[in-house]
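I have been asked to look over a protein record a colleague put together. What it holds is a sequence and that sequence's fold in token form. Please read both lines and tell me whether the tokens look consistent with the sequence. I do not need a full report, just your reasoning and any doubts. This is what I was given:
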Amino acid sequence: AGPGQAAMYAGLQELGVANGEDLKETLTNCTEPLKAIEQFQTENGVLLPSLQSALPFLDLHGTPRLEFHQSVFDELREKLLERVSAIALEGKVEERYKKLEDLLEKSFSLVKMPSIQPVVMCVMKHLPRVPEKKLKLVMADKDLYKACAVEVKRQIWQDNQALFGDEVSPLLKQYILEKENILFSNDISVLHNFFSPSPKTRRQGEVVQKLTQMIGKNVKLYDMVLQFLRTLFLRTRNVHYCTLRAELLMSLHDLEISEICTVDPCHKFTWCLDACIREKFVDNKRARELQGFLDGVKKGQEQVLGDLSMILCDPFAINTLALSTIRHLQDLVGQDTLPRESPDLLLLLRMLSLGQGAWDMIDSQVFKEPKMEAELITKFLPMLMSFVVDDHTFNVDQKLPSEEKGPIPYPSTIPEAFTKFLQENRIACEIGLYYILHITKQRNKNAFLRLLPALVETFSDLAFSDIFLHLLTGNLTLLGDEFALEEFCTSLFDGFFLTACSRKENVHRHVLRLLLHLHHKVAPAKLESLQKALEPTKQSGEALKELHNQLSEKLELRKPSPAEVSETPSMELPLPTVPTPASR
């Protein structure tokens, strides 16, 4: 018998059951092999008197004994598996688990025998506490560990953080990669962007579902995952870990896992914020609820602010808070009200500030809300409101009958203070960027070109972050026709994008994404110079080189062949041409 055969009989000897080795020995040491085989069959066959007469009947039909025993065995195993599952649900708790523990004790020695393994695994799966010794044996054997149910693995993981970390780590990597793939996707659209999927849809993602299943109702494992996410967020500053923190909690909320939801102090806050994210707006009722949670943080429990700040640092939360802020500012213009007189607006800023301060808070372990700068409220926001007023004024002027002095030009300068705020104040920068996204979405070319120069230098280079560039490229598709104009392209590409391409590969990629989408709108001469300016270097990543190749191929297809150019008859009437759809 080879090693495979040995595995088939693993553990039988310990139970005093004869196996292949015993038969081999019997046959080697006997004088009458046939008699020995018959005796072995009688001793080890199914001991049912009524069966003895029926077996020869099967022989007549040419059914091998192996096939018969196998089918009996399979049938019995199914019955046993059903019985184990039933025992796990019946009688008093102590009694049912005592039965299962006894069964495990008897059967565990056969755990490596492939045909019996499912039964042993099933018994372990239904035991809330598998004996330590058995868990250690399973953990030490790679194949057994792989074969055991997630219920058993949870018991192993909760005392082996490193092993659990090895299981979770590839999932977290996959999650971050999926997020980055969406941000760099070649499909550029104002309707379907990074923030389009609803929270409920996002929670159905593979990684969130797998983690939810791995955690089950185990608070210890949930805490471990949160610890991993905090550590990775600190190490990388990658905000997608904050999204996963919120998604995981809400996924357990969907399944009504009260064992975990009731002990996570962020549960109700996250639940309320989740509803706002779904609506992409913080309404007054929910705003009061969220404020209640923040004001309710008691002395001695300030550490919860670290968790709340991580929930608020989720880009989906920031997006909702920033969009709500822009909407509030527009309403205030209509009401002739100043920002400092709007409690709702102040609450949005407070939450933005807490979210943006998450990394510093978790890093320093100083749990108190960041101080809001008065100038943000008294100077910066009124300045944004004045931009809104400028637009209204300009639009009204355009409609008035023009007098001798000619039309009033659109204001082209920006206050120095605006540029300074974007460079030095994180919250101002975030709100400023969202205001620019807002005017782009409104196809307000004048306002866009006026404010664009302020984006070249921003706080922590936020204007060159993937999320902002992903949204900006989407919104710019609405200004597609402007790309034919030299002035517009020079401001956008030379004045903004190209200032960072050489030092930031992500910006380089986003520009190529945009051009792949809008190249047919750009004037040929400009397109050619952009193609040269955007040549990848030797150090460029594969994704960037691939994008540049795709662009070059598209531009190659657009060039008319030399023959076409020279053959156009000069004096005759032009032939009617069939319009071709603009190639993308």
Notes: The CA atoms of residues 182 and 194 lie 6 Å apart.
